[in-house]
Amino acid sequence: MGASGKLEVLPTRSDSAAANMAADFLLLRRYPETGRANARFRAYDWHRPAFTFGYSQKIAWVRAQLPADAEGVELVRRPTGGGLVDHRDDWTYALVIPRGHELEKARAVDSYRAVHAALAAALVAGGQAAVLKERCVPAADADAAGEGGDGELAGCAAAKGPTVCFTRAELYDVVDPATGAKIAGAAQKRSKEGLLFQGSIWRPAAAGVRDWEVLAETFVAGVAAALGAEAEATSWPEFAEGEHEALTEQYSAPEWTEAR
After folding, report:
1. Cα 109 → chain centroid
2. What would the pLDDT profile of 195-243 be if each residue is shown by its tens digit?
3. pTM (2 decimals)?
4. Rounded to the nearest 5 degrees, what angle is found at the Cα of 186, between the Cα atoms of 182 and 192?
């Protein structure tokens, strides 16, 4: 693949769950500026314990899956698909690929595999054994077992039902080769602006990682290579005045969380 501009690496920030989801969505919708077509990446933290869940999930199902010790945590509906994700001890990132990049035009399962291949390689380089899950339970067998997929990110029993992230690996999730335990998963959203990829590594499943900052650098380099781009640190973008605050308020409102 030929060069595709820059992969702009934004500063790491910590925010509320609603503000993090709003920032990711605005990175897809409002940035970069007209005339630029650079991909962008950010890793981020959470102000408080939080769970997020996929855009299409039913709130009744989500609440039923929350663990007993999750009382009082932030609970926010994501703009992307997928299941319920526990962010209390994870490493979270977002990747935005503007329209026109080869990886943005690829099938969801192919973009999922490409990004997770870079992540698995970074984990291995950082001391954690990791591979992609290449085979899954056939859809018919998954139905019989009561299993389901993760919406757009699913490749196993696709669209058969919601899942709780890190309890079962889907096709091309990152897993421990010895135990099959899920290490990393993600969700995607495609729009006319491009592709938003929201991913998470469950730290307890990646105990072999020696240095998380080095892991991040290696992962970014791998993503840049997959894009045929050059990684470059950049400042935080200037959104329209009040835009991020307004979207954060929308994502934190009960009407958004309980929309389904």
Report:
1. 14
2. 999 999 999 999 999 999 999 999 999 999 999 999 999 999 888 899 9
3. 0.86
4. 165
Domain 6-257, classified CATH 3.40.50.620, yes or no: no
Q: Residue 184 corresponds to which amino acid? A: A
Give the C-alpha distances (Å, rounded to integers) separating 90 from 45, 53, 180, 234: 9, 15, 18, 24
Cis-peptide into 138, omega within 30 deg? no
Please state, in angstroms and rounded to a whole number, the distance separating the CA atoms of residues 86 and 88: 6
* Model pLDDT, residue 238: 87
Listed residue (44, 47, 115, 56) closest to 84, CA to CA: 56
Q: What is the pLDDT of residue 165?
A: 54
Residue 250 has pLDDT above 70, yes or no: yes
pLDDT digits (tens, 9 = 90+) for 12-21: 999 999 999 9
Contact 40, 10 (CB under 8 A): yes
